[in-house]
Amino acid sequence: MEFLYMFSxxxxxxxxxxxxxxxxxxxxxxxxxxxxxxxxxxxxxxPSFPLGNLEEMKNISRKTSSQSIRSSMISHDIHSTVFPYxxxxxxxxxxxxxxxxxxxPFLYIADPEFLKRMSNGVMGKxxxxxxxxxRDREPMFGDGLxxxxxxDWVRQRHVITPAFAPANLKAMASSMVDSTTIMIEKWxxxxxxxxxxxxxxxxxxxxxxxxxxRTSFGLSYGSGREVFEKxxxxxxxxxxxxxxxxxxxxxxxxPKQTLEAKRLGKEIDSLLSSIxxxxxxxxxxxxxxxxxxxxxxxxxxxxxxxxxxxxxRELVDECKxxxxxxxxxxxxxxxxxxxxxxxxxxxxxxxxxxxxEVIGDNELHFAALAGLKKMGWVMxxxxxxxxxxxxxxxxxxxDIRVNELTIPNGTNMWIDVVAMHHDPDLWGPDVNEFxxxxxxxxxLYGGCKHKMGFLPFGFGGRMCVGRNxxxxxxxxxxxxxxxxxxxSISPAYCHSPSILLSLRPSRGLPLVVKPLI
Length: 517
Ligand code: HEM
Prior knowledge:
The structure is a single chain. The protein is α+β, with helices and mostly antiparallel strands. The protein has 21 helices and eleven strands. The chain has helices spanning 2-39, 54-68, 79-82, 84-93, 112-120, 131-141, 150-160, 166-169, 173-192, 200-217, 221-242, 255-281, 292-299, 312-343, 345-358, 366-369, 373-385, 417-421, 424-427, 438-441, 467-484; strands spanning 96-101, 104-109, 197-199, 391-395, 400-402, 405-407, 412-416, 485-489, 497-500, 502-505, 510-515. It has a four-stranded mixed beta sheet with strand order 1-2-7-4. Strands 3-11-8 form a three-stranded antiparallel beta sheet. Strand 5 and strand 6 form a beta hairpin. The longest helix is centred in the first third of the chain and has 38 residues, at 2-39. The termini are far apart. Bound molecules: protoporphyrin IX containing FE. Residues 145-146, 157, 321-322, 325-326, 329-330, 333, 388-389, 392, 456-459, 462-466, 469-470 line the site of protoporphyrin IX containing FE (HEM).
């Protein structure tokens, strides 16, 4: 009898606890955050609780995609296609406003001056990353450099940055050449056997996966492919659950995907742990001399300086971070480049001419890459028009004052890179044209009217650590491809850039590829 009484008491307490959590999560906290932001002068589309503005975003996207299917033209004016809800809200609320993903307030920013003022007083280590995304992407990045905060970020960044120094990257160029040469041979035999078209995005994503596997962990592609495929499967799974980001208890709404992402995460962790253990136990055996993991393990050696070492757990998370952050973004930069060059034959020829002048018949070496100036302009212009990382996210860990506004601690920020890269106020009336020559005079900002208006690699202390590696890979792969083939648009190509975490051609990228005579 007493047991039954106790049991009922516990059940009632649990029930009330859960009820209170639901009431607070779905109503009390969001409403108080909403009022706080409103009294501090922030405006934006009206949210409904607990979905915030998600329903409206879905409706606007649905409407836009049904309209855009009818158009088959390649337009680079993509902001209103990839972020139609932001384009629409900008018209009524300007370039800075609050919108809600579920019960999470997000400060939308597409104004570089506001961004500058906001970030002026905040050090790299004081920025947070939105907890909603952290939870969602935990299986992918764990506590790797992309997500970590505070003193742990300082320590990790301190250990990782030197690994990406040009002197270390130099040794990786030849493995990039090897992998690209294998892909070129495959393309040549495909063409010989009658294939006219190649889906360059699929091919280059595989190539970039192989390159990052080799340059990060020194793997043969056989074992790299398993990690790569699991990461890719996880990305798709996470995207499906993403639709409910910010909605309390949303992970219970798609339990299948949540469990699937967890399972994949565990498998990837265990694969990577065994790679790290093998590397620790057999230093230097069977791997290229200097790869990223090798460099990090050097920092991690027994006499490593106090406070600079990375634990095995952290190394696993860094490996995942490099793998995910490193292959997909670079592959997309290269794929979009091939599309734009297929559309602009005069630039394709100019780059070929530059390759002949700078490299000639010599073997491709790291030192020669700096001479490929025009290729650098083309890369920047592609990153402007089709930024693989379409947004940068932060979370305030303290109240931040910008002019007369105070951004409360805990507010998430969504910096719309696509909007700024396509803003005629910043770039002029030819903003949506492919004009690499913008970067001729001003190779850092392409003549953008504001220094914070061109952010393909983010900003401040948290700027992308892998940008030198990307630039090298981009030049190696593009040089080899343009020296062998010419590229034209396939009639089968349908221009539909869309967001799957990164900005990708959602219906593939078939191009007509012909060997050069
Ligand atoms: C075209 C290629 C790439 C693009 C567009 C890109 C873009 C970005 C962006 C936008 C950020 C966020 C910066 C911020 O929050 O301000 C970032 C951070 C980062 N990226 Fe990249 N990235 C690329 C390639 C790479 C590569 C090749 C690697 C590594 C192998 C890499 C590793 C990282 C890491 C570790 C961070 C976190 C840095 C930190 O928070 O301290 N990225 N990247």
